[in-house]
Write a structure and sequence with these properties.
Layout: H1 6-24, H2 52-55, H3 65-77, H4 84-91, H5 105-108, H6 118-142, H7 147-150, H8 161-164, H9 172-187, H10 192-209, H11 214-231, H12 235-254
Helix pairs in contact: 4-10, 6-9, 6-12, 9-10, 9-11, 10-11
C-alpha cells in the first residue's frame, strides 16, 4: 500500500475537523425586526408602485345610503363586546411584528414560527412596507375620519393617538390581510378556502373593533389585490416567493 504523504494527511485531518465543527455548531438565529421603526422596507419601486388614490373611488359621501349603512354597521357591531368574535378582533390588531402572520395558523394547519420560516417571515413583513407605499396617498388624500371619532363609542382596544391622525379609508389591515391570504393561498392551494376566509375575517375585525367602516374594509381588499398583482411582477419578490413556499411546504410536511 502506498503511504499517504504527510501534507495530504494533515490536510485531510484539518478538513474533517472543520466539517465536524460546522456540523456541531448551532445555526445562527435569524435577525428580525422588533416593531415599526426597524421594519423592513417593501419590494416595490415607489416611483412605479400602484397608487391607491388613482384607482380607488372616493369614500361614501356623508348622508349617502352607503354612508348610512356604514354607520348602522358600526353601531350594530358595538353589541359584540365580550363575545369571542370581539376578542378575536382585538387580537387581529397585531400587524407589525414578525409573528403577526400566525393568524393563519389554523387555516394553514401549521404553526407559524418565524425562526423556522425566515424567508416567508421577511416576505410577508416586506409586504407591509409595500402597503404603506400603495395606500398612503389615498389615506392622506381622502382622509376620512375614523368611526370612533365621528361617533364616539366602545372599541375593542384603546386607540393609540396616531390612529386618529391616520385616515380611515382604505383599511390597511384589510389590505394586508387580503394580500397575505392571496399569497399564502398560492403557496398552499389545498388550503386556499380557509386561508382566504381568514384573510377576509382579519379585515372584518377592523370593522368589529370600531376603527374602520365597512366600506373602508372593502376598499382595503381592492388595495391588497392590486399590491399583490404588482408584487408578482417583481423579480426579487418572485425569488423570495419560491424560497418562502419551500419553507412553508417543509413545515407542513413535518407537522
Amino acid at each position: 500500500m502506498t503511504p499517504i504523504p504527510l501534507v495530504r494527511r494533515l490536510a485531510t485531518t484539518a478538513l474533517a475537523l472543520t466539517l465536524a465543527g460546522c456540523a456541531s455548531a448551532p445555526a445562527e438565529a435569524p435577525n428580525f425586526w422588533t416593531g415599526f421603526l426597524d421594519h423592513p422596507h417593501g419590494y416595490l419601486d415607489k416611483t412605479k408602485a400602484p397608487n391607491a388614490a388613482a384607482f380607488l373611488p372616493p369614500p361614501p359621501e356623508p348622508g349617502s345610503l352607503r354612508a348610512q349603512d356604514d354607520i348602522a354597521i358600526y353601531r350594530a357591531t358595538r353589541a359584540l363586546k365580550g363575545t369571542p368574535r370581539w376578542n378575536q378582533a382585538r387580537t387581529d390588531n397585531e400587524i407589525e411584528t414578525p409573528s403577526a402572520p400566525r393568524i393563519f395558523d389554523e387555516a394553514l394547519g401549521v404553526t407559524f414560527v418565524p425562526e423556522a420560516m425566515p424567508t416567508l417571515t421577511r416576505l410577508l413583513g416586506r409586504m407591509l412596507g409595500d402597503l404603506e407605499t400603495v395606500q398612503t396617498p389615498a389615506k392622506r388624500g381622502f382622509f376620512r375620519p375614523r368611526p370612533f371619532l365621528a361617533e364616539p363609542a366602545e372599541t375593542c382596544f384603546t386607540p393609540e393617538t396616531w390612529l386618529a391622525d391616520s385616515g380611515s379609508y382604505p383599511s390597511g389591515h384589510s389590505a394586508l390581510g387580503w394580500a397575505w391570504a392571496l399569497v399564502l393561498a398560492e403557496m398552499a392551494p389545498d388550503r386556499a378556502d380557509p386561508i382566504l376566509a381568514r384573510g377576509l375575517a382579519y379585515g372584518e375585525s377592523r370593522m368589529i373593533c370600531g376603527v374602520h367602516y365597512a366600506s373602508d374594509v372593502e376598499a382595503g381588499r381592492i388595495v391588497g389585490a392590486a399590491m399583490v398583482t404588482a408584487l408578482k411582477a417583481d423579480p426579487a419578490f418572485q425569488r423570495d416567493f419560491i424560497a418562502a413556499a419551500r419553507e412553508l411546504n417543509q413545515a407542513r410536511a413535518a407537522r
